[in-house]
Each structure stands twice: as structure tokens, then as C-alpha cells.
Amino acid sequence: MKNLEALWPERIIPVVIIKEREDAIPMMEALMKAGLNVVEITLRTDAAMDCLRILRKEFPDLILGAGTVFTRKQVHELQELDVNYIMTPGLNEDVVGAARERDLPILPGVMTTTEVDRARTLGLKHVKFFPAEAAGGARLLHAMTRPYVHTGMRFIPTGDVTLESLPAYYAIDCVAAVGGSWFVSPALLEAKAFGEISRLAKEAVDVAAKYALPIPPQPKTAKDDL
């Protein structure tokens, strides 16, 4: 995938901790009713890998991401599952190397300019700002990203983001998308509240459509992501 922005046209990513395999399909149907064709399943539960398999089989055109990736073994398994991208909590260079060897887009988590610099050294143009709200929110992200605007770096904030905090993130021109879990929380899934998931997801989609700034084109000197 050369143009990673194409993965997130709605500019909002559902980040899901899912415990029950049977919830995968109705959850995705609820998100699709809200206009989303993307989901990120975090590898925090025993059901996560099975849910990725189910979603890829049931929705072949789904933009399927995997989060909380820690090991090379997981990278191998995820490539076989045909995920579109992976995210890691931190900048694990071994995992980044494994993903790049397989041309699997990876967005490592960063929280400092030092980590952004290291990601750039590794040849990456997209990173995850995590944990976004605890780290300082949109105010910190805006200040941290200013030196990198001309380099083509792109950021995806995630971590305790809310509907109310979305507009501030979208006011930052190098934010490619925002990851959120409030509209597809474990509590909503446990309650099988798929109608509510769809309603809350539509609110997020509408806010993204209203506030997200156009993403500037990559500089001509920027290399493609792997």
C-alpha cells in the first residue's frame, strides 16, 4: 500500500477490543451502517485473531487493521490473514523490521519527538500518537508535529479520544485519521448494543466530515511507505 491515507477516507478508525467471536459480524455491520468500511482489532483478547479471520472472510473489501502487535510471530500471522495495516503501542524496531520485510504497512506508537525522529530514520512516514489524551492531547500533538510538517510525516492520535476532543485533533493538518473506541466499547459489545454502536459511530463520522482538514500532499522527495 503506497498511499496510506487511502486506508482511512472517513478519517476515523474504530479501535476495538472484542471478546466474543460472534460479535464480529454484527459489530461490523453496525459500523458499515454508519458509513465506515474500516476497523482495527486489537490483539488484547483470545478472540482477536479469530475475529480478524471472520471479518476478512465475510467482508473481503474491508480495510482491516490489527493493533497491539508486539512480536515478529504476530506480524507473520497477520500477513497471512491479509490485514491492511498494523499498529504497535510503541516503537519496537524488531516488529517494524518484520513488517517492512513483508511490505505490511506499520504505524508504531510514538509520544515524543525523539521517537518521531527514530521512526523517520527507519523510513516511516506514518506513526500513531499514543496514548493521545494522557500524553497531552491535541495541544501537545500540534506542538510536537510542527517541525515535521514539511517532511511529510503523518500522525494518527488514539487513546481515550472522545467525540468532544475530535475537532481539536482534526485542526492539525498532518493528522491522517483519528482512532477511537468510545463508539464501539467493550461495554457496548457486551450489551450487544449494535444499534447504539451505529448511532455513535455516525456521530463520529459526521464530526470527522465537518472538521477534518485536507491532508497536504506528500513532498516530492518523500519515499513511499512500506
Describe the structure.
By secondary structure, the chain is α/β, with parallel strands linked by helices. It has one domain: TIM Barrel. It is built from ten helices and eight strands. The longest helix has 18 residues. The mean pLDDT is 95.
What is the averaged pLDDT score?
95
Strand content: 15-25%
What name does the CATH topology carry? Answer: TIM Barrel
Instruction: Tell the overall outline.
Output: globular
How do you describe this structure in short?
The chain is of the alpha/beta class and 226 residues long. It has helices at 24-33, 48-58, 72-80, 93-101, 113-121, 132-135, 137-145, 166-170, 186-190, 194-211, and strands at residues 12-16, 38-42, 63-67, 85-88, 106-110, 126-129, 154-157, 178-180.
Any chance you could write out the topology, listing elements then pairs?
Layout: E1 12-16, H1 24-33, E2 38-42, H2 48-58, E3 63-67, H3 72-80, E4 85-88, H4 93-101, E5 106-110, H5 113-121, E6 126-129, H6 132-135, H7 137-145, E7 154-157, H8 166-170, E8 178-180, H9 186-190, H10 194-211
Parallel strand pairs: 1-2, 1-8, 2-3, 3-4, 4-5, 5-6, 6-7
